[in-house]
Structures are given as C-alpha cells and as structure tokens.
C-alpha cells in the first residue's frame, strides 16, 4: 500500500506538471496569436463610422467622437495601459495617435516596429480597453517632433522636395507605407478592430506646395487596403487648400470662433463638424517661458463645442516626453529657429508623468453628462519619489570619448550631418558632430551663417566661444605654429512646421572662414550618442576620478542605488549648464539651464533595484551631483494667450 500511495502522489505531481506545462504553452500560443492578429470585438460588422449627414453614425447609430491624443512613442510602453485607462475613465471613447516615420524607419529600408514602437500592441491594447482609434499615419505628422516625423536620410538627396510628388519623396513614402499599412489594416473596424478612421497626411493646407500630393497620399492608403472613413486636419486658414475629395475635413483650434465654424460648414455643408485638434495647452521653447492654458479658460470652450453637437479630440490629452533628441523646432514668426524643450507636458489634462490635473477632473465631470452610465473610477496614481542626490564619481573628456565613436571621416570641405558616410550611408540624424581642422594664425572666424544649430568652438581643445544663428563671428587668439580648430556642432532639433522643411540639414551646411581664407581639410567625428556608444562608454576603462579636475565638454558618471522597487522621479541639475542625460543607457533628453524646463522625467520602469548608471554629457560646468525631485519644474509660466 505504501508503494501504491507513493506512486499515486508521484502521478499527481506529474499530472500537475503536465497541466502547468500545457497552460504555459497555451498562453504562449495565445500571446503570439493576439500579438500578430487584432482581437475581434464583434464579427459580421456593418456600418462603420459614417459622415453622411450632419452627425456621425457608427454601427448605424448616432455617434459623437470624444477623443484624446496620446502618442505611444512619447510614453514608456510599461505605462501605455495606465494612460489609456485614465483616458477611458475621463469619459473619452476614442484614442488618436500619430505614427512617427523617422522612428519606424531610422535607416532607409530598415524598419522597427518592436518594443516601444510596437504599434500593433498599442492598437490591441486600445481595443481591449474598449477605445476606438483614429490613426494619423502621416507620412508627415508635425507633432512638435523632429522634422515633423520625416526621416532625416531623405535630406541626403540635394534635390529633395518634402511633402510633394517629387519621385524621391513618393518612392520613400510608398516603401514605408508598404510596411506600415499591412500592419495596421487588419485593425480596421471592418475587420473586427478598433480603427474607425484614418487621417490623410496632416495640416497640408498650411504647406500646400503640390496640388497632386494629397490625392497621392489618399491613393497610397486606399490601394493598400484602408477602407475606413478618411479625414483631413487643418486650421481655418489651411482648410482652403488642405482637403482632398472623399475625405471629411476637420478643424484645429484652441479658441472657438463662430466664423471658423461657419467657414467649415461652407466648405462641406450637412457634414459632421469635428475639432480634430482642440489644443488643450501648448508647447515650450528653450529660452522662453512655460505655456499654460488655464482650466477656467478651457472648460467653457469645450462646453460650447459639445453643446453645438460637435465631435472633439483633445490634443494633447496626455503629452508625454520628447525622449532623446526627438524634439522639433519652431521657425514661424521668428528670425531664427528655436528648439522645443524635452518635456511634452503640453499643460494637458494628464501631466507628463500621467498625473491628474484640474483640467482632468473638470473634463471628467463635464463629459460624464454625455454618458448614460456612470464613468469608471480613475485608476490610482503612480507614486513619485525624490531620491537622495547621486554624487558624480568619474568623468571622461569629450576628446577621450572619441575612441568609442565610429571611425572619423576626412573631407576637404565641410559636410553636413545628413551627408556623412555613417550609419550604413544613411548619414547622421541626431546629436553632435565634431569638425576639426588645422589653423596657423588667429583672427576672425566667420560662420557665414552655416552653423546648424549651435557650435562650441575650441583651439587646441581650449574653449573660445559659441557660434549660432545670432553670433556668427568669433575672435580666434593668436598663437604659434599649427593649431587645431574644433567646432562641436549640435543639431538642436529640426523645424517641424512651416515651409522650411527642405532646409533642415544640420552640422556645417556650408563654408566657414578664418579672416579671408575658407577652411579646408576637416576631420569629422559623428557623435550621435546612440545606445551602443553609451554602453561602450559606460564600460570603458578611461574614466578619471573626480579628484582630477575635469575638462569640458565631458561625460560624468554617477550611480543611483535603489534598495527597493523603483518609483517615478525627476532629475534636476542646478549648477550644470547644458547637455544630455542618460540613465541605464536610455537617453532622457536635453537639459539646459536657460530653461524654462528644469527637470527631466525618469519613468520607474527604466530603473531597477541596485545600481542604476547615470551618465551626463555636460558642455561647460557641473556641481558634482545629480539631484532628484518628486515633482517637475517647468519654469515660470505664461498664459498661452
């Protein structure tokens, strides 16, 4: 009996093991299935989103779009569900998102739709939460994003005409859409997915260089299987030139003007009216103030929009962050481009870190009156923590770090960043480029306005000044013999809006001269600071102790030790000047003492227990420690009006 009993126990354990193994395999298979195919919310669907009368219908019933923009590429993937759940709890029924071509095709013919860029997973998540989706695939998105989302390698073509039917551009768009649309088409409403509408390009009426372009983009979508309602999006002035036959026109604004609504009615009478971008706040520029749009001013406008029966999409509902070097720049109405800051908080209803704001609570109360059932309760907030300062332990000069970059290039004349023979001949997209040449005298260095956007200038590695759009001449001290002139040129962010997109090449874009002589014979180092470079830097043996005085620019290394589960936090760097912050190899973005932004958001999922590696590239000064805060500091505020 004892033997039988033991056998029975062993068999029971084996059965349990087999059951567990079977369940694990089933989960893996189910995950792979749902990852590669959209969930089916309902089969045998008919009557998707229609715009055949003065109001939308969905499934044959009146439908009002209550939308919000949240960009998957501006939010850590681990927080996608948190942000979308909070949007749903505010009473919104539709998610809108752009698709950034420059991230999905970083090199020509090399496509990335994995991890943070898994658009299919994002659509799947929206569907699982009961949210409809309006997809805005570009190819141009604006979005205060570098070059409006267009990849910089397009600018290797000296004849490039962006956002036109120039073959060099349309061929690239067709190639990208071949990959993108086959991924998103299965998520359309008619196929059981959440996508109820697709936008044709973006705000083309403000650009309008080619009357054949919008029909081209429309056909590029239709021919690849897009069957849902097509939309366009423009401000009032752009409506005149931004539409395309067969697509519903929508309008963008922040302050309601009845003449604008009448204009929209005149463009397309007896059609639903929608504010595709109701600007819930505004973006910020380095050296400017932090823009806010008060809830007290915003809510009455939203109330009136809803009372008039219009549909609305909040741009942004949650802005997120321009991690890395992805911020754009503004050139409209100013003498020279000014770059956007790293945060994209946008003074939106959900803050940069996903916190509720006064706007959120007031909107939730307002929108609840347009629902028959009570809204779901808002999820708990993500906890923030102010960690103890991390002391800088080591430093490495820029010149020593050049060993970890790609092999330098030689060129008789200056070469702009995008034209460099790096990254499999796709050029350099972001970061810094170091140009070095020999000089034999002092005098006046003249940039001829060919610096894009800002250059730190050195003679024999001694800093002598900065050249940019405003300062185009610099005194070079006299000296004996041959000396090395170095220009560390930073791409501060390409313009994302307006008619100067074709002019957004960076680095040295033309000749510079010393006195009357054009400089020649350059050694060029590409410092795009990709993760591979940062990882090589981190493991380098060249670091020096802080007991030895650092020379600038330099990389500074510190460790943030956590003895328990990480929390969201913000880095702040008083006593530092300007540069870039990396944590565990991830580029958090730029810091710059001129503000307005004074903190950088650090998401908890990018930290771990134990030592977290912090590297700061700093151009000019440091106080030797990295501080942390539980709340952001976006600088002195000014009303967006």
What does this structure look like?
By secondary structure, the protein is α+β, with helices and mostly antiparallel strands. It folds into three domains: 37-368, TIM Barrel; 390-396 and 541-639, Jelly Rolls (Sandwich), CATH 2.60.120.260; 413-520, Jelly Rolls (Sandwich), CATH 2.60.120. It has twelve helices and 35 strands. Strands 14, 27, 28, 29, 30, 31, 32, 33 and 34 form a nine-stranded antiparallel beta sheet that branches. Strands 3-4-5-6-7-8-9-11 form an eight-stranded parallel beta barrel, surrounded by four helices. A six-stranded antiparallel beta sheet has the order 15-26-16-22-19-20, with no helix packed on it. Helix 9 (295-307) packs parallel to helix 10. It is globular. Residues 1-40 have low confidence and may be disordered.
Major β-sheet annotation: 9 strands, antiparallel
Which residue ranges are poorly predicted, with pLDDT under 50 across at least 5 consecutive positions?
1-40
CATH-assigned homologous superfamily of the largest domain: Glycosidases
Task: Give me the CATH architecture of the largest domain, please.
Answer: Alpha-Beta Barrel
Net shape: globular
Reading off the top of the CATH hierarchy, the class of the largest domain is best stated as Alpha Beta
What is CATH's topology name of the largest domain? TIM Barrel
Tell me the span between the first and last alpha carbons: 87 Å
Q: Would you count the extended β strands for me?
A: 35
Number of helices: 12
**Helix share, percent:** 10-25%
**Structural class category:** alpha+beta
The average pLDDT score comes to 93
* Gyration radius, rounded: 27 Å
Content of β-strand: 25-35%
Counting structural domains, the number is: 3
């Amino acid at each position: 009996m004892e033997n039988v009993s033991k056998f029975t126990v062993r068999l029971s354990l084996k059965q349990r093991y087999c059951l567990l193994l079977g369940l694990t395999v089933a989960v893996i298979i189910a995950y792979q299935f749902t990852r590669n195919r959209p969930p089916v919310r309902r089969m045998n669907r008919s009557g998707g989103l229609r715009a055949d009368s003065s109001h939308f219908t969905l499934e044959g019933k009146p439908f009002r779009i209550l939308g919000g923009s949240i960009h998957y590429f501006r939010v850590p993937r681990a927080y996608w569900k948190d942000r979308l759940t909070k949007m749903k709890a505010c009473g919104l029924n539709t998610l809108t998102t752009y698709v950034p071509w420059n991230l999905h095709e970083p090199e020509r013919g090399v496509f990335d739709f994995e991890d943070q860029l898994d658009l299919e997973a994002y659509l799947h998540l929206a569907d699982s939460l009961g949210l409809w989706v309006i997809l805005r695939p570009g190819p141009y998105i604006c979005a205060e994003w570098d070059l409006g989302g267009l990849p910089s390698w397009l600018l290797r073509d000296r004849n490039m005409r962006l956002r036109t039917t120039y073959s060099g551009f349309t061929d690239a768009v067709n190639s990208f859409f071949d990959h993108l649309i086959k991924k998103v088409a299965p998520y359309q409403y008619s196929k059981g997915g959440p996508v109820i509408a697709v936008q044709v390009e973006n705000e083309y009426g403000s650009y309008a260089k080619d009357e054949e372009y919008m029909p081209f983009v429309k056909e590029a979508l239709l021919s690849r299987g897009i069957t849902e309602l097509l939309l366009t999006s423009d401000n009032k002035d752009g409506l005149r030139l931004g539409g395309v036959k067969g697509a519903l026109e929508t309008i963008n604004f922040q302050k309601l003007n009845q003449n604008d609504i009448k204009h929209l009615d005149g463009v397309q009478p007896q059609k639903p009216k929608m504010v595709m971008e109701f600007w819930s706040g505004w973006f910020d520029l380095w050296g400017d103030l932090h823009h806010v749009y008060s809830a007290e001013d915003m809510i009455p406008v939203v109330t009136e929009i809803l009372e008039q029966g219009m549909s609305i999409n909040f741009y942004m509902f949650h802005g997120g962050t321009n991690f890395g070097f992805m911020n754009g720049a503004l050139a409209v109405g100013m003498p020279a481009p000014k770059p956007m800051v790293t945060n994209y908080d946008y003074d939106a209803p959900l803050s940069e870190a996903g916190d509720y704001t006064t706007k959120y609570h007031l909107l939730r109360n307002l929108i609840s009156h347009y629902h028959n059932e009570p809204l779901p309760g808002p999820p708990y907030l993500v906890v923030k923590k102010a960690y103890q300062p991390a002391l800088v332990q080591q430093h490495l000069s820029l010149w020593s770090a050049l060993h970890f970059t790609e092999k330098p290039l030689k060129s008789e004349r200056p070469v702009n960043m995008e034209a460099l023979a790096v990254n499999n001949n796709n050029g350099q997209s972001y970061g810094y480029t170091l140009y070095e040449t020999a000089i034999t005298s002092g005098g006046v260095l003249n940039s001829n306005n060919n610096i894009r956007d800002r250059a730190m200038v050195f003679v024999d590695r001694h800093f002598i000044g900065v050249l940019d759009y405003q300062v185009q001449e610099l005194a070079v001290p006299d000296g004996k013999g041959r000396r090395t002139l170095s220009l560390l040129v930073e791409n501060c962010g390409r313009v994302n809006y307006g008619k100067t997109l074709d002019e957004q090449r960076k680095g040295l874009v033309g000749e510079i001269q010393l006195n009357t002589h054009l400089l020649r014979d350059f050694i060029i180092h590409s410092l795009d600071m990709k993760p591979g470079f940062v990882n090589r830097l981190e493991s380098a043996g060249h670091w020096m102790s802080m007991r030895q005085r650092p020379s600038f620019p330099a990389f500074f290394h510190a460790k943030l030790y956590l003895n328990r589960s990480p929390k969201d936090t913000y880095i702040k760097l008083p006593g530092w000047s300007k540069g870039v912050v990396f944590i565990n190899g991830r580029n958090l973005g730029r810091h710059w003492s001129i503000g307005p932004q004074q903190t950088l958001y650090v998401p908890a999922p990018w930290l771990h227990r134990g030592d977290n590696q912090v590297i700061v590239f700093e151009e000019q000064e440091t106080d030797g420690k990295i501080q942390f805060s539980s709340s952001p500091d976006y600088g002195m505020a000014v009303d967006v009006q």
